[in-house]
Amino acid sequence: MEKSFALADIKCIKRITIGNIDPNNPMKDEKKEEQLEKLNEYLNGYPKGKIIGKDVSFGVFQMGEHQLTMQSTTYHVGFTREVR
After folding, report:
1. Do residues 70 and 21 lie in contact, with contact meaning Cβ atoms separated by under 8 Å?
2. CA dist., res. 61 & res. 45, Å (int)
3. Gap between the Cα atoms of 25 and 28, Å rounded
4. Domain locations in the chain as residue ranges
5. CA distance from start to end of the chain
6. What is the C-alpha to C-alpha distance for residues 75 and 71, in angstroms, rounded to an integer?
7. Domain 7-79, classified CATH 3.30.110, yes or no
8. What is the pTM of this model?
9. Tens digit of each residue's pLDDT (9 = 90 or more) over 12-33
10. Helix (H, G, I), strand (E, B) or coil at 19
11. Cross-sheet strand order for the sheet of 50-63
């Protein structure tokens, strides 16, 4: 059975951003995969983290007659002890 997780027990918070909203610097798929792997490592590795918050940013840009929408998500992962 899993031990309960309280916000008061959190000693360390790591932020992982997936995606970006800069149309002049589009993100490569390899970089996005790296970010997802890091998030999964934090959630499944030791010590195991929990998502305690999420920020979503949107950018809507007009490029000529086309509209471009970009999104980035920042996950706040909490740990009960320090993580490197």
Report:
1. yes
2. 38
3. 9
4. 7-79
5. 27
6. 13
7. yes
8. 0.83
9. 999 999 998 888 888 899 999 9
10. strand
11. 12-19, 66-79, 50-63
